[in-house]
Write a structure and sequence with these properties.
alpha+beta, Endonuclease, Chain A, 2 domains, 8 helices, 4 strands, 49% helix, globular
């Protein structure tokens, strides 16, 4: 696995690592140990950072982007890939603030997946938990807007904040 990562671009590296974790081919712990045993690796710094993020539960490039958005804007640390009383796992849960964030890529969310998502969202609503859904275009294209929307809902539910503007945030949010 580490040999595949040697010449990979950052985007390809994210994809390789997250796919390996999704398929349960390895773990962040095992890859980190293997990386530590090597004296040199071209992507050591990036791999180390990615392994920490994947170790926190980010299982796709989209989830990695959301995790970075969360940190950059001072949002609370959500719990990743947690089971709830409704079927399946949730991408990010802010349990204290009764908020679920679902990050939907193309795979698994069309056709029957759409109906599965609706059933899970309805089950969460019955427990008075709100679900916000974002796709790649949202998180990659308008990360500051996504962060501001999540912060607004969290604030309505008791999160003391503050929302932290990043250098890319529009001035109107000052």
């Amino acid at each position: 696995m580490l040999d595949l990562c040697e010449g990979a671009s950052p985007r390809v590296l994210e994809d390789l690592l997250t796919r390996a974790m999704q398929k349960r081919l390895t773990t962040p712990f095992h890859l980190r140990r293997a990386l530590d045993r090597r004296s040199r690796h071209v992507r050591r710094v990036l791999l180390t950072e990615l392994l920490l993020e994947v170790g926190e539960g980010a299982e796709s490039p989209l989830e990695l982007r959301y995790l970075r958005l969360e940190r950059r804007h001072g949002l609370p640390d959500g719990k990743r890939q947690r089971r709830t009383s409704s079927p399946g796992r949730r991408d990010v849960i802010y349990r204290e603030y009764t908020l679920i964030i679902e990050l939907d890529g193309r795979i698994g969310h069309g056709g029957e997946g759409t109906f599965r998502d609706m059933v899970r969202d309805s089950a969460a609503l019955l427990e008075q938990i709100t679900t916000m859904r974002f796709g790649f275009g949202d998180v990659a294209g308008s990360p500051c807007l996504v962060a501001a929307q999540v912060a607004q809902v969290l604030g309505q539910r008791g999160w003391p904040g503050p929302f932290r503007r990043c250098p890319a945030c529009p001035n109107r949010w000052s």
